[in-house]
């Protein structure tokens, strides 16, 4: 009973204004707002710039009016940015706090357009470095204070005695602590 048959509305707010309250009428699926499903709607509006918040709710009418909303993702066709608004709450007069509308602020890397590029670079760096964490590899850290190596073994053992020599022949990481 997490879906709703009530009329659902959304208002999208950006740096250049808002869309006003819009009913979400035509999903790409024959039945909309079903439990565990994702619906897609097209909302036509002037470009609002970077988005900051939305207000989403329903009219509270009809059978099965309560609704559990996980999140809303808005894809901006002008900038190709995705804006995610997490909710993970009930919009129901008989559940949670009884509200049937929620104001949600943008919650992910889309807050700053440059963060998506930064996230892409982070993923590329991880793709290049993740081999170090594969099963069987031993990580070693050089401690400048003790002038020895601290080794993290594949079997989850930590050799923190600060050996003066590199007993595994390779140093994957060298951090110094002063």
**How many domain regions?**
2
CATH superfamily of the largest domain: PLAT/LH2 domain
CATH topology assignment of the largest domain? Lipoxygenase-1
* Portion in strands: 25-35%
Task: Give a short account of the largest sheet.
Answer: 5 strands, antiparallel
Examine the secondary-structure arrangement and name the CATH architecture of the largest domain: Sandwich
Please tell me what the overall shape is.
Answer: elongated
pLDDT < 50 stretches? 169-178
Total strands: 10
Specify the structural class: mainly beta
Number of helices: 1
Order of helices and strands: EEEEEEEHEEE
CATH class descriptor of the largest domain: Mainly Beta
Radius of gyration: 25 Å
- Mean pLDDT, nearest integer? 78
User: How much helix, percentage-wise, in residues?
Assistant: under 10%
Distance between the termini: 58 Å
Q: Can you give a write-up of this model?
A:
It comes from Tricholaema leucomelas (pied barbet). The protein has 178 residues and is mainly beta. The chain has 2 domains: 8-114, PLAT/LH2 domain (Lipoxygenase-1); 134-177, no CATH class. 10% of the residues lie in helices and 33% in strands. It starts with 7 loop residues before the first strand and ends in a 15-residue tail after the last strand.
């Amino acid at each position: 009973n997490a879906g709703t048959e009530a009329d659902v509305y959304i208002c999208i707010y950006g740096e250049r204004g808002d869309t006003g309250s819009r009913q979400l009428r035509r999903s790409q699926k024959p039945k909309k707002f079903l439990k565990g499903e994702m619906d897609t709607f097209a909302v036509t509006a002037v470009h609002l710039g970077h988005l900051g918040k939305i207000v989403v709710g329903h009219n509270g009418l009809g059978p099965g009016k309560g609704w559990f909303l996980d999140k809303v993702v808005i894809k901006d066709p002008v900038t190709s940015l995705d804006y995610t608004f997490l909710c993970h709450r009930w919009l129901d007069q008989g559940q949670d706090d009884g509200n049937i509308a929620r104001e949600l602020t943008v919650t992910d890397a889309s807050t700053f357009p440059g963060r998506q590029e930064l996230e892409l670079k982070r993923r590329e760096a991880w793709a290049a470095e993740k081999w170090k964490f594969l099963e069987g590899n031993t990580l070693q850290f050089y401690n400048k204070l003790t002038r020895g190596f601290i080794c993290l073994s594949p079997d989850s053992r930590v050799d923190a005695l600060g050996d003066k020599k590199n007993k595994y022949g390779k140093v994957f990481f060298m951090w110094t602590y002063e």
